[in-house]
């Protein structure tokens, strides 16, 4: 029997893609996307069995406040945090807020579905490799961890950064061109360059990689001021 659930993420492309995949597997998806500020209110109003709640910065203070509010007002709703590779602090904060589990942005749909079923059954839903990675980091902390998001961001021109942000927001080539004041053919070329530089084969993969590494958060100021045509 399908689960009555919600996918709440401020990156519409990711939310809608995941919602569509879950619908095809027989689940009842109540909503696909919402800004982070309104996530808790939306979940409380609709009261699903399970909520997949997206976050790009699991270690940021207060990031799991929506989870706290949801569990306070709708304790029967199981909340699964959907985010990038978390730090041990991020995993601990998610569970401390009342989350039932943590699912990575790049998890396969089968893994997401398993987590949903566990959460609905009242079980903790977190991949063993995440726990293993958390323990490894706690026991052997890296002095200067590699910042993949920053590395990827440095590979892109300011114009390509803006294109990536628009892709993650779900804009097609026509909307990208209109929003940036360029020809559709130019927008298409920029998109292809972004995919090539990131080493991915589709726009969805590019958006997922950007969200998982935190690249989108870092890209914000640059995307608002893209500078000269690159």
UniProtKB/TrEMBL annotation:
Keyword Transcription: yes
Pfam families according to UniProt: GerE, Response_reg
GO biological process, any: regulation of DNA-templated transcription
Stretches assigned to the HTH luxR-type domain: 149-214
Cross-referenced SUPFAM superfamilies: C-terminal effector domain of the bipartite response regulators (SSF46894), CheY-like (SSF52172)
Transcription regulation recorded as keyword: yes
Protein's recorded name: Two-component system response regulator
Lineage, broadest ranks: Bacteria, Bacillati, Actinomycetota, Actinomycetes, Kitasatosporales
């Amino acid at each position: 029997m399908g689960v009555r659930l919600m996918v709440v993420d401020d990156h519409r492309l990711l939310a809608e893609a995941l919602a569509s995949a879950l619908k095809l597997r027989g689940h009842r998806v109540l909503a696909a996307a919402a800004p982070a500020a309104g996530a808790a209110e939306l979940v409380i109003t609709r009261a699903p069995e399970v909520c997949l709640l997206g976050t790009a910065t699991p270690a940021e203070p207060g990031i799991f406040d929506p989870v706290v509010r949801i569990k306070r007002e709708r304790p029967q709703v199981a909340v699964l945090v959907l985010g990038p590779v978390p730090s041990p602090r991020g995993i601990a904060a998610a569970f401390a807020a009342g989350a039932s589990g943590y699912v990575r942005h790049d998890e396969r749909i089968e893994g997401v579905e398993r987590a949903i079923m566990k959460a609905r059954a009242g079980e903790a839903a977190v991949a063993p490799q995440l726990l293993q990675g958390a323990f490894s980091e706690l026991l052997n902390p890296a002095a200067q961890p590699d910042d993949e998001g920053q590395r990827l961001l440095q590979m892109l021109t300011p114009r390509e950064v803006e294109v990536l942000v628009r892709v993650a927001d779900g804009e097609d080539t026509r909307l990208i061109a209109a929003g940036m004041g360029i020809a559709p053919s130019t927008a298409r070329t920029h998109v292809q360059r972004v995919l090539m530089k990131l080493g991915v084969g589709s726009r969805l993969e590019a958006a997922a990689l950007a969200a998982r590494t935190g690249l989108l958060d870092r890209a914000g100021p640059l995307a608002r001021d893209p500078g000269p045509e690159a």
